[in-house]
Every structure is written in structure tokens, then in C-alpha cells.
């Protein structure tokens, strides 16, 4: 396990993580969070664990992957801490550092989303959902089939992807980002 200082410094150095040391553990964020019941550790607890240097426990947790990005915690925090941004930082660090997440399929959804953008330059909903359900739980697709069919018959869900112009430029941007990330 990395030492205590390095983990909180790592989080504090990311956009939105700057004020993590200002947390007074009042719990307003957890009380306001609509996803707290789904989380292994709610926002207040996650911040306490980061401060305690519990890197492995935090980054292998499914908690941040349940965040809905509603920003209720962030707008209500009396100390200017940004638990929403911290949740997304933790997702990034968990992915980047190869932590295996249990109890949520959100990382699979995110990966399919990114792959769709890379391939088409925009999201192709049918492709994303097909890959998601095939990877996670094919039978669960039956539940959303009526909605999907309704959208399809209203011409709101194209079966085939439509790429954007300038996909080569997009590939260059993504490649540049990877190079910058590798250097940091
Ligand atoms: S609301 Fe802000 S100060 Fe209170 S526990 Fe949450 S992050 Fe910490
Ligand atoms: S932004 Fe995420 S962590 Fe914050 S209240 Fe909403 S769901 Fe909870």
C-alpha cells in the first residue's frame, strides 16, 4: 500500500481535489447523495478513507462508480470540497492503476462509450448497449427491449453508426492525449 501522504496528495493534485483537506466530516454530502445507499462507502466516508491513506480499499471499491454526477454533494458542502470531482478522479485512478472493480458494471459501460467515440467520432447507442449487455448480462437486455423498439420505430435509434467528418483529426487528438498522459 502506498503511504498516506502520497494518496491524498495525488487526489488533491487533480482538478476538483484541491480542497479535500478542508473537509470537516459533517456528512452533509452523504445525506444529500441520492446514490449513497448503492455505495459501499458514501462520500463522507470515502473522503475520510482517502485522508487515512486507504488507497487499495478506496480504488477497489465500487462506490465512485455509482456516482450520478448530480452535484448535490458539491453544492451543499460548507467547506468547498467537491466530492463529485473527487469521485471521477477516483474512477480515473482506479482504471489507470488497474484496479478490478466488483459490484458494478459501470466501467464496462464507460469503456464501450469511449470505444464508440474512438470508432465513430460520436456515440452509437445501439452498439454501446449491445456490447454492454453481451458482456454483462444478456438476459437483462429483454427488460429494455420495449423502450429500444419504441425509439427505433420513432426513428430515434439508428441501427447503424454514423461517423463524423474528420475522424482522422479526432484520432490525432486522442493519440496526443495519450502521449501527454504517458508523460505525466
Ligand atoms: S459536506 Fe463537505 S465538509 Fe461535509 S463531509 Fe462532505 S465533503 Fe466533508
Ligand atoms: S454527485 Fe455523486 S457523490 Fe455527489 S451527491 Fe450526486 S451521486 Fe452522490
Topology:
Elements (H helix, E strand, L loop, with lengths): L3 H9 L15 H5 L10 H9 L3 H5 L12 H5 L6 H14 L9 H15 L4 H11 L5 H13 L13 H17 L1
Helix pairs in contact: 7-8
The structure holds iron/sulfur cluster (2 copies).
Architecture overview:
The chain is mainly α. The chain folds into two domains: 4-96, Orthogonal Bundle (Fumarate Reductase Iron-sulfur Protein, Chain B, domain 2), CATH 1.10.1060.10; 106-183, no CATH class. Helix content is 56%, strand content 0%. It is built from ten helices and no strands. It has helices at 4-12, 28-32, 43-51, 55-59, 72-76, 83-96, 106-120, 125-135, 141-153, 167-183. The chain binds iron/sulfur cluster (2 copies). One iron/sulfur cluster (SF4) is lined by residues 23-29, 43-44, 47, 77-79, 81, 83.
Name the helicity range. Answer: 55-70%
Can you tell me the CATH architecture of the largest domain?
Orthogonal Bundle
How does the overall form come out from the CA principal axes?
globular
The CATH topology of the largest domain: Fumarate Reductase Iron-sulfur Protein, Chain B, domain 2
List bound small molecules: iron/sulfur cluster
Question: β content, as a range?
Answer: under 5%
Radius of gyration: 19 Å
First-last Cα distance: 21 Å
| Low-pLDDT stretches | none
Helix and strand element order: HHHHHHHHHH
SS-derived structural category: mainly alpha
CATH classification class of the largest domain: Mainly Alpha
* Largest sheet, strands/sense/barrel: none
Total separate domains: 2
Report mean pLDDT, rounded to a whole number. 91
Q: What is the CATH homology-level superfamily of the largest domain?
A: Alpha-helical ferredoxin
What is the assembly state of the chains in this entry?
single chain
Number of E strands: 0
- What's the helix count? 10
